[in-house]
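Reviewer 2 asked us to include a model.

Predict the structure of this chain.
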Amino acid sequence: MFLTVQLFWVMACISQKPDFIIVQNPPSIPTLIIGKFVAALRKAWLIIDWHNFGFSILGIKLGKDHKIVRLARWYEQKYGKVAFAHLTVTDALRKELEQNWEVQGKILTVRDKPQSDFKRLGIQQIHQHFSSSLRLFEQLVRDTTEDGEMFLGKSNNRNSSTLLTDIDEKGNLIWRQDRPKLIVSSTSWTEDEDFSILLKAVELYESNAKPTDPRLLFVITGNGPQKKFYQEKIRSMELKKTRIVTAWLEAADYPLLLGSADLGVSLHTSSSGMDLPMKVVDMFGCGLPVCAITFPW
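Predicted model (structure tokens):
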């Protein structure tokens, strides 16, 4: 109730009279009804920026047939149906609104784009950052496994080399020749990301990899309710060709890690099957190939 009053007060009383009001959905409650009412009150054009369906997210915890979920769907369809324009992050979401929700107003797909700091890094930048803030991953491998040093591979000079870079005999900066491939995934460790899929893939690689196949270092960033559960599973695995480390990164370091990696992994399963995970957008911005759960977009 307080949030509803506060939102109305800011939008209807404090802010200057707008020509357009843009409401991101979700959250749907109470933003859609407040946005619609304030737009009518202040004679502004309402634009709804659809990223997903709020009722489908609620359905993850309560079940899609729960009375509250059905009520939330009715609310979202009623107050999200009419607007000056509807923006969607995927074509699948646009088609759903057009064909099944029959929304009124202009509708177009506007895909999310990564921020400017999500980009591919050069060898100089990678060496710099893996010599400082990102050196923790190298240390995590050494600290968590007995043969961590062997897994990291040979280098010309341990003091000057990093996880990915090395210095040759002439003092030139080069890519570390005997290194594991760096695979990155980020997660909030919630039920919409089943990390047992990744652990099963690791087990399959361990069983089938040839001696000449590369070693794989999986770095999983983020915090969340299921983190300890999966950390226990990881500790119980017998790994030779792979290692899995988990860490929490500062916001500024995350794009640096993505910009240095060999592969990105997204295990996000959309509650609606129609939204685009922002983590995939960030990985694309860094020029990373991505392994992801399939969905139409």
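The chain has twelve helices and eleven strands. The longest strand covers residues 82-88. We have added this to the supplementary material.
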